[in-house]
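[audit] Reproducing an earlier prediction to check determinism. Same input, same settings, fresh worker. If the tokens differ from the archived copy the diff job will pick it up downstream; this log only records the rerun itself.
[audit] input (319 residues):
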Amino acid sequence: MMTSKIDSPPPYEEALHHPKYDNFPYLPQHVSPLPPPPSYSPSPGYWGQGGVYPPASMCQGPGFPPSGMPTTIPTLSAGLPASNPGEMEDFLSTQWESTSVRHAFIRKVYLILSAQLAVTFSVVAVFTFVDPVRMFVISYPGIYWASFVVYFVVYCILVCCKEPRRRFPWNLVLLGVFTLALSYMAGAISSYYGTKAVFIAMGVTALVCIAVTVFCFQTKVDFTSCGGLLCIAAVLLMIIGIVTAIVLSFQYVPWLHMLYAAIGAIVYTLFLVYNTQLLIGNRELAISPEEYIYGALSLYVDIVHIFLFILQVSGAATE
């Protein structure tokens, strides 16, 4: 018995040029050429060129932003849709403006602080090295208590009242009065100590301030979240100060005086760290850029108190 020969499928080229093989329905009669593959271009902006596959609106790869986006942005921020270039530009513009405003705020605060410290240590130098002035300050302690009252009142106004603290030029006037009052107090206290003790206190205070500033700009530890602990430390320092004053009023004990002064210097150094990180603004809490008077005031008070406490330690040590 003869069997019919089953024809095998023709090759593709033969079927393409000889469409007589119509017994294979899956073969298309009219074959259109396939689209060419996309040309590779290493340029970052090649997505925006015309005729390039795929279109810019359909694909965005890392390092290849669409047309209209800045090509210098390496990554996208978390939570911002990558398909919205307008929001990305607004976000980056806001971030840049915020950083520039913060830097200008820090420069302004440190400029004001430098002027305050220059006035204060000039007064301290005059009260320490000019003997007639030194004797006058020691002979009239009432001026010291008057300056203390001015210091306390102006401090309460600047800390508790937002309007005077932010209104120019009254904020600078109040800060100037406060600086003069505290400078007189620091100079009056320094007049009771020797020249060597004052020099040592100035040098140690400068080293502490530089070390704290460098530490705050480099560390990842957030001290702004420890405000409650610092308040407890301030209360304990006040209690220790009252007890020490009562004990020393009956009998002067040098080591007790040095211990209290050392604790006070440590506590105010921690306050300086806290207020410096508030100033920097990259932690949990931050000072508003409008509060440059408050920023300079807080740092200035911390530095002067560190100087006075270190002066007590050095003065007791050099006696």
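[audit] rerun output stored. Observation attached for the diff report: The first helix runs from residue 12 to 17.
[audit] end
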